[in-house]
Design a protein that fits this description.
Elements: E1 3-16, E2 19-32, E3 36-40, H1 47-55, E4 62-71, E5 74-75, H2 81-87, E6 92-95, H3 99-102, H4 109-115, H5 123-136, H6 142-145, H7 155-167, E7 173-177, H8 185-202, E8 205-210, H9 213-219, E9 222-227, E10 230-236, H10 237-242, H11 247-254, H12 294-298, E11 304-307, E12 310-312
Parallel strand pairs: 3-8, 3-9, 6-7, 7-8
Antiparallel strand pairs: 1-2, 1-4, 4-5, 9-10, 10-12, 11-12
Helix pairs in contact: 5-7, 7-8
The protein binds adenosine-5'-diphosphate and magnesium ion (MG).
Adenosine-5'-diphosphate binds near residues 45 and 61.
Length: about 325
Amino acid sequence: MEDILKVENLKTDFIDGNQIVHAVNDVSFAIREGETFGLIGESGCGKSATCRSIIGLLKENGRISGGKVIYKGKDISKMRFREMQKIRGHEIGMVFQEPMTTLNPVVKIGVQLTESLPEKMSKEDKRKRAIELLKMVGISDAQQRLQAYPHQLSGGMRQRVMIAIALAAGPKLLLADEPTTALDVTIQDQVLKLLMKLKQELGMSMILVTHDLGVAAQTCDHIAVMYAGQIVEEASVHEIFKRPRNPYTYGLMCSLPVKHRKDEKLVPIDGMPPNLKALPKGCAFAPRCRYCEKICLETTPELQEIGPGHKTRCHQWEKLKDVHGMVEGAI
Ligand SMILES: Nc1ncnc2c1ncn2[C@@H]1O[C@H](COP(=O)(O)OP(=O)(O)O)[C@@H](O)[C@H]1O
Ligand SMILES: [Mg+2]
């Protein structure tokens, strides 16, 4: 399978007052055509900054300071705004976490949908396509809904509209950044199933950002775990959940409800991710790690391949050799 997207040594910084936040710090990964690639990790570890860098939608105080984003063989990281606009939506679509902040509150759903359709379409064709799109994302009485304002819809409906907008121009790659996090649990499940069904039907590739390992286990083909702006483990979903080889990944698994695990104890990871303005020497996870040794506090570990397609960034990974992650049924 071809790689549809390659991120190479990506670095993204934010300027915060007179300090620099190294939000994405030398991140590389590749996404194969048709695959769902999970980007997981706690809040603040650089998942959104990675996605926004890919699609050129960083906040004003953010910038890509290094690396490449190669889409279908072409580096899109240095493209001008107008060039990037052609890629955005048409080639790469994006669904954000909070639809209320991305939908315009004073513009009717129908108008917002048609705005993302090709300009050359006639008004009537746009209307028909908008109705089709709403039906596709499971919105009944689509025709009436075109006249609705965002606040007249439930959270789940709004997120369905966002998905319809993201898919309007038929992107080949969808970036879904915590697309269900803001929704009620039952609705989360519906929206996620819808996304996966559409991905399949439309033959898209997808990056799914989530802090929910259970969701990742059920939907992704490949997983990269991020911590403090870096990838700390990467493997196929099966491999990473059966044989986690990074204490951080294992820690995330241990904070999941027991139905997914062999190990019965529910142990959240103590402490917080580090301050990205002033990273400690050595491994960024060391202060929270139960396997930490002297070397971990002194030398930053490299991301190394420890098995076929399995990478980890940890001096102590061999100590996890006897660890078995999530139970078969969860994957
Ligand atoms: N616009 C911004 N200005 C300053 N810092 C930011 C900005 N956006 C994100 N950050 C910081 O960058 C880091 C990564 O953020 P983010 O990519 O949003 O994490 P995640 O999506 O994994 O929760 C965090 O430390 C966050 O505080
Ligand atoms: Mg985020």
